[in-house]
Amino acid sequence: MQTISLEQATPGMVLAKDVVKPEAASPVLICGRGMELTEALLERLHRIGITRVTVQGRPVAGGGEEATLEDLLAGLDARFKRHESDPLMAKLKDVYRRLIIQTAEM
């Protein structure tokens, strides 16, 4: 699951969380979790002032390109490389690895 700007969203992505109108006194559901984004829906969200959506998986890396599971795991390995001999850090890395894999499967 990943929260992205509406500009990064593309048709075919699937919402991981409901989209609600933020300034309403009580939350007004605009579209529900599990809905596939279309060009028309993205345009509608833009018109009503929605700036961010949460989509399934991790389809967007920092620069807007596709982030593969392999890329995410390689990044994790690079971040923990200095701490390979620390057993506590190894456990922490394993927790993050499982979370990344679980999130990628959503």
Overview of this protein structure:
By secondary structure, the chain is an alpha+beta fold. It has two domains: 2-55, Molybdopterin biosynthesis moea protein, domain 2 (Alpha-Beta Complex), CATH 3.90.105.10; 69-104, no CATH class. The chain has helices at 39-47, 69-80, 87-104; strands at residues 2-5, 19-21, 28-31, 52-55. The strands form two sheets. Strands 1-4 form a two-stranded antiparallel ribbon. β2 and β3 form a beta hairpin. The longest helix has 18 residues, at 87-104.
N-end to C-end Cα span: 7 Å
Query: What value does the Rg take, in angstroms?
Result: 17 Å
Main pleated-sheet profile: 2 strands, antiparallel
What is the topology, as strand order, of the major beta sheet? 1-4
pLDDT averaged residue by residue: 85
- The proportion of strand residues reads 5-15%
**For this structure, what is the CATH homologous superfamily of the largest domain?**
Molybdopterin biosynthesis moea protein, domain 2
Poorly predicted regions are none
Strand/helix succession: EEEHEHH
Q: Which fold name is given in CATH as the topology of the largest domain? A: Molybdopterin biosynthesis moea protein, domain 2
Helix content: 25-40%
What's the total count of β strands? Answer: 4
- Net shape: elongated
CATH architecture of the largest domain: Alpha-Beta Complex
CATH level 1 name of the largest domain: Alpha Beta
Please, how many helices? 3
Q: What structural class do you assign from the helix and strand content?
A: alpha+beta
Number of domains: 2
